[in-house]
Amino acid sequence: MNRTLIDRAVYEKIPFRDKRITLCGSTQFPEAFEYWNAQLTLAGNIVYSVAIMPHHANIRGELREDEKAKLDAVHLKKIDNSDAIFIVDIGGYIGDSTRSEIRYAEKTGKEIYRLRARAKSS
């Protein structure tokens, strides 16, 4: 089990506080979601993340198409409830779902924050 780092050097420098933020990005990077959820929360923000990461082993079984559609719809509701989205962009990978979420956030007037980081080499 991975442990999430309390990274004071990072979260103390986050320039925004008291915002409702939805994490967006590829669920291929669950550790990045956990890390940024923790840092943004420690900085004093309310953070919405994804409940199920289909690319990761936090679920058993395969999602049906209707379940995927439901998760996508719920994620958009999280964006509706947010002041901003925070895009977890690892290795420059932005998939179709994330692009759609960015467009939705832009259309609904949300602030957009973006992390660009390199993927870890194996």
Compile the SSE list and pairings.
Layout: H1 8-11, E1 20-25, H2 30-42, E2 46-48, H3 65-80, E3 84-90, H4 96-107, E4 111-117
Parallel strand pairs: 1-2, 1-3, 3-4
Structure report:
With 122 residues, the chain is α/β, with parallel strands linked by helices. The protein has a single domain, classed as 3-Layer(aba) Sandwich (Rossmann fold). The protein contains four helices and four strands, in the order αβαβαβαβ. It has a four-stranded parallel sheet, sandwiched between helices. Strand 1, helix 2 and strand 2 form a beta-alpha-beta unit. It is globular. The chain starts with 7 loop residues before the first helix and ends in a 5-residue tail after the last strand.
